[in-house]
Amino acid sequence: MTMKSFGDEDTIFEDMDVLNPNEQTYQPEALPEREVELDQIHSALRPATMGSTPLNLIVYGQSGQGKTVGIRLKTNQLQEYANEADMDLTVVHVRCKGMGSSYHVLTNLVKRLREKRFGPGEELPSGHQRKTLLNMVIQNLEEIEGTIIIVLDEIDAIGDDDYILYELPRSNPDGVRLSLIGITNDLQFRENLDADVRSSLGEDEVRFEPYDANQLRDILARRAAGALRDTSFNDGIEDYRHLQSGVLTDDTIPLAAALGAQDTGDARAAIRLLFRAARFADDAGETIVTEDHVRKARDFLETKAIESGIQTLPNQRMLALMAVTFHAVNSDAPVSTTPIYTQYKSFCEYENVNILSNRRFRDRLNDLADTNILNKQQGRGRGEENKYTLAVDLETALENLPKESARLGDVAEILREKDSAQTR
Ligand SMILES: Nc1ncnc2c1ncn2[C@@H]1O[C@H](COP(=O)(O)OP(=O)(O)OP(=O)(O)O)[C@@H](O)[C@H]1O
Predict the structure, then answer these.
(1) CATH code at position 246
(2) Can you tell me which residues bind ATP (predicted)?
(3) What CATH number does the domain containing 402 carry?
(4) 207 C-alpha to center of ligand 1: Å?
(5) How far is the CA of 182 from the centre of ligand 1 (A)?
(6) Same structural domain for residues 122 and 152?
(7) Do residue 66 and residue 184 come from a single domain?
(8) Is 63 within a domain?
(9) How confident is the model over 78-96, as a mean pLDDT?
(10) Residue range 311-348, pLDDT digits in tens
């Protein structure tokens, strides 16, 4: 077989980045589906143009609804205005994902504010008390001066530790008009905020409702028109009905939009699906992206999501999955809770992990069923136990259990050996 060479292949892509769902790779310049929400954000930011303090804002809604791009579009637009009007404006965007506490957000904020002052490459401060970090933030804000907007994206990551959300809006740095924008896709987080935090941070609140299938069609149409060859809008009207394409069949975008809308109207998921479908076609040297490519992309992405779901399972759920896998190596038949629990207990002893009560163990099995890693057959009459099977291929489960050298890897290895002894 000869190796493919770069550069001499035909492609259906004109600018692949436009269909890339990664926010860092491509940012849309307009969000026509979000006119109302953008106007609400505009209203909260507008005081900045009048020499006053922009309002604090909570932006909430499920994943992939354009919250982050929406805030970026409006803050960029304000920044452009500020540059022209010679207004002193600084916008700092902090992604809180993975930070886990106010402490980490504060250290990051100190680093980001210092970078605004001194340029990139500042270290994260370490070894300070929370209160000292807050003072460092305030001091940096006072050095920067003017109007400062701090965007805390995915603030739910801080969990119960809302110190920063309580203190920062009350900090009153000298010579600064400070505004905070908190973005979250955890609706419960917003509900659970302390009443004081909610009233100071949520001076204004903007809710992003899930996109419906028609909106997703229009979103996909615009991304496709930018990304694919021979694909453009009739009469300059940028909606799905005016899209004309020599590389998409009539069903491709509607199917990707319908599948995207099925879950939570998530634009990122719909874009990811169309992108993967187009790549499948393109990599195979095909010139048309069809419904079949979309279905294949859906299967591929679902499998990938489940694989990474297995790889990142917490210990107890991993042990529960391994106990079910143990039975699956012997037979495809659904297995009742009791024999799974027995197997689980022996794995816990082997790995020296504490053993959950039967009831809590059953909750873990149900968690695995909720995330489509196991199939569950509900016990019918009284006293009949639920039964479980793997919802993924046995090979997929075995391959994605921990590696030999990792935590719980010994048990995973026993299962893999048992399976290869069986098939031999
Ligand atoms: N109306 C739209 N038009 C075009 N692309 C969009 C639109 N809304 C969202 N997107 C795209 O969908 C992806 C997700 O958007 P974004 O990151 O803003 O979502 P989010 O609501 O902040 O999600 P999360 O809460 O998961 O961070 C991005 O690639 C973005 O460009």
Answers:
(1) 1.10.8.60
(2) 211, 223
(3) 1.10.10.10
(4) 14
(5) 16
(6) yes
(7) yes
(8) yes
(9) 95
(10) 999 999 999 999 999 999 999 899 999 999 999 999 99
63 CB under 6 A from ligand 1?
Answer: yes
- Does this complex have an ipTM over 0.90? yes
Which of 183, 208, 233 is the endpoint of a domain? Answer: 208
Quick one: 52 and 117 in the same domain? yes
34 Cβ closer than 6 Å to some ligand 1 atom: yes
Closest Cα to atom 1 of ligand 1: 31
Distance 299 CA to ligand 1 centre (A): 22
Q: Which of 208, 240, 257 marks a domain boundary?
A: 208
* pTM of the predicted structure, to 2 decimals: 0.84
Number of Cβ within a 10 Å radius of residue 44 = 21
For residue 225, pLDDT over 80 is answered with yes
Residues 92 and 121 in one domain: yes
List the domain range (segments joined by +) for residue 237: 212-308
Annotated binding site for ATP: 211, 223
> Which residues are known binding-site members?
211, 223
In a domain, 148, yes or no: yes
Q: Is the CB of 21 under 6 A from ligand 1?
A: yes
pLDDT tens by residue, 138-178: 999 999 999 999 999 999 988 888 889 999 999 989 999 99
Query: How far does residue 103's CA lie from ligand 1's centre (Å)?
Result: 28
3-state SS of 19-64?
A: HCCCCCCCCCCCCHHHHHHHHHHHHHHHHHHHCCCCCCEEEEECCC
CA 140 to ligand 1 center in whole angstroms: 31
- Which residue's C-alpha comes closest to atom 12 of ligand 1? 268
